[in-house]
Amino acid sequence: MLFIRPLPCFPSRLARPGRTTLPRHPLLITQSNVRQRPLLCGISSTRTLASDRTATKPVNATPDRSLPVSLPVPTIRRVLASRQVGDSVDVSGWVRSVRRQKARAFIELCDGSSLEGIQIVLESNILTQCSTLPTTGTSVRVQGILARSPGGKQTTEIVANEFTIIGECDPDSYPLQKKYHSIEFLRSVPHLRPRTRTFTGLLRLRDGATRYLDEFFANQDFVRIHTPILTSHDCEGGGEVFKVVNHSQHQAGENKEFFQRPVFTTVSAQLHAEIMAHSLSRVYTFNPTFRAEPSMTYRHLAEFWMLEAEMAFITDVHQLVDLAESMLRHVTRQILDDYASELVHFQRWVSKVSSNDAPVDLEQRWRTFVDQPFARMTYTEAVEILQQHVQSHPGAFTFPVEWGKDLQHEHEQFLADHYCQGPVFVTDYPSGIKAFYMQDNPTQQEQPGTTSASVDLLVPGPGELLGGSLREHRFDALMAKLQKYHLDPKEYEWYTDLRRYGSVPHGGFGLGFDRYIQMLTGIKSIRDIIPFARYSGHCHL
Known about the structure:
Largest sheet: 8 strands, mixed
Number of helices: 14
Organism: Dispira parvispora
Domain Aminoacyl-transfer RNA synthetases class-II family profile: 203-531
Oligomer: single chain
GO molecular function, one term: nucleic acid binding
Strand content: 15-25%
GO biological process, one term: asparaginyl-tRNA aminoacylation
Enzyme class: ligase
């Protein structure tokens, strides 16, 4: 048995490689039109924009030859989509609510396949056969006739012919009765909160976003790869790490390493993805990531999900920016099309639970992602904007704004929530605050210091959503970086080998998937975005 303990962080310097002087290589995204970007956030630029709808089908796409699957009971979603009024239907699910009248009863039944479920009508002939009505949380099976509903809340309902209780639910002890439950209370019952309407919708939204990401990358000829959770590289600059230790040897006081060297849970799949990109050209991975940071903010977790993409033969950080923007547009548009009821629910729910906070217009947030080009500015321009705000509003920020220091969350919030009022890419961060593997930009006289070909995407709500860079692909320059950051070249010999043998310009980015869902739903705490939250002092289940 292995157990994991946190170790202190090594120097946290996540950088993004700088821009090379090589000619730009066209992105895989279909470049369908060139247009002048409108003035956004005081910065205009002309970019070749990727069309979000013109991605072609993968070359190796084949017709669906899968055999039909015959499952015993169809989902409620399938019944509502494929059956006609008057058809005999058979569904199963959990009772969300029960309403009794004199001659009949109404049950709201949900099986997780749709947000609202379906109404079941128990007429008097069925009621006489029931000794007691099912209570909230009871699992049941219903056979009956699909009928038009005279009520205004739903168009169809099922009039039951047979009604079977599968699993009873004690109403006196069941925590999720039909009433409002605070999000803090639901956090205390992670094994039951998926049964609520809000978390059913949240889980379905996560599933849809995952599928649309896979769809986007498949259409751009990316290969999904599997990278390890355990790694011998203690910290790639992402923060504190968890060390993996053999539990029995630890109890016995033995110092022998199970893997014969220190091993840690991954803080990023980037270095492994770079290996694969030097063979497959375009790769991505979607994995859990671990950070042993004691932070207790609403934006941080010890375990979270991250999508990381790596692409060979790119020479400009704005090619990464174009790819990331097209990816997020595609996913958000698909969610708007296919999960409208869930998004409407979250708009109402957020308005209810955040009555004391500033109102959040989620629909405007979603539309900004789909309808408007993302704003773009350099780090230097961002600092100038922030400093101008401080001059006109003294004391606006807790942390000082200085060139050469990383942007704090309050700075990111101002840029995305107030100045741009939407997503904004910030590029060309100072090299000194970024990681060793990021490529430096050519020196420019107007810059106070050396910058890197790096990018962060800032969005309303969570702030930083995505970070990426060009990677240093030149052997001599990378060796100089290792020396500058006091890293042992022997430990990174495999990494420098990629520069010895057929090196190519390349780059990539990482997307905080949970923060993306947080931004979409407006849910304030990331602990309520992931099914089973892990953070300092908390690891239930």
